[in-house]
Design brief:
The chain is mostly helical and 135 residues long. 74% of the residues lie in helices and 0% in strands. The longest helix has 26 residues. The radius of gyration is 30 Å and the shape is rod-shaped.
């Protein structure tokens, strides 16, 4: 690239950089990620600068920015699970798990303190009694 074209690109970045970052922050919601996306968009714009500078370079940079954000969304997209899908495949739902947990706690509370301590240490904290440990 010619020195004149490089200077024109640097002026373009100085003139539009803040607007591109602001746009990217609104697209992704995180300033650090937004700055990374803008840097990538500007790199792409720089690679094609001789062709892009004749037209609308800011529009090209914005388009590169939006495409990069869309690619990021596709990579990190959360896949939706239809409502009720967990019960259709036989998994207990959250209310069932809470109910079982509550029942377990109530049963533990009926035991004497020392028995409760043994059960908690043995099964929840995985601690063996001293006489059962292997040397």
């Amino acid at each position: 690239m010619l020195e004149r074209e490089e200077r024109a690109f640097e002026e373009f970045v100085a003139r539009t950089g803040d607007r591109l970052v602001r746009c990217a922050v609104l697209l992704v919601g995180d300033r650090g990620t937004a700055e990374d996306l803008v840097q990538g968009a500007l790199e792409r714009t720089y690679r094609h600068w001789p062709r892009v500078s004749a037209g609308h370079p800011e529009a090209y940079a914005r388009r590169a920015l939006v495409n990069a954000a869309a690619s990021r969304w596709r990579r990190f997209r959360i896949h939706e699970v239809p409502l009720g899908a967990d019960t259709e495949i036989g998994l207990p739902d959250h209310a069932d798990r809470l109910s079982v947990r509550d029942e377990l706690i109530r049963a533990l509370m009926t035991l004497p303190v020392r028995q409760r301590a043994v059960l908690v240490l043995r099964y929840l904290d995985d601690v063996l009694p001293a006489e059962r440990r292997t040397p």
